[in-house]
Amino acid sequence: MGWEKRDRGGFYYTRSKKIGNQVVREYVGTGPLATLAAEMDALNRQRRQEEAEAWRVEQRVHGGSRDSDRRAVRGYGGLGAGRPASRWLPPAQPR
Q1: Structure pTM?
Q2: Straight-line distance from the first to the last Cα atom of the chain, in angstroms, rounded to the nearest whole number
Q3: CB–CB of 15/27 below 8 Å?
Q4: Where are the beta strands (DSSP E) in the chain?
Q5: Which among 4, 5, 12 is positioned nearest to 30, based on CA atoms?
Q6: Domain boundaries, the chain
Q7: 42-51: pLDDT as tens digits
Q8: How do residues 73-82 score in pLDDT, each as one tens digit?
């Protein structure tokens, strides 16, 4: 993302976006509207970075307790939860 200057002169603002496996440059424009779009993109980028940092902090602070919760659930799974009922039926008696 950013401002580009071309040989013909003048600056214009573009964005990069991923479509499928390809990165495509999107022309936004020049002038005040492009400046506004660039400022909005910068604010959105900053918000996403802050959210990512908050998530990382939460993982550091609460990560251990969540791991123990997962281990407890896995341990419960070993008692037969989520297994087919046929495995826990008594063996068939000969007739």
Answers
A1: 0.56
A2: 77
A3: no
A4: 2-5, 11-19, 22-29
A5: 12
A6: 2-77
A7: 999 999 999 9
A8: 555 555 555 5
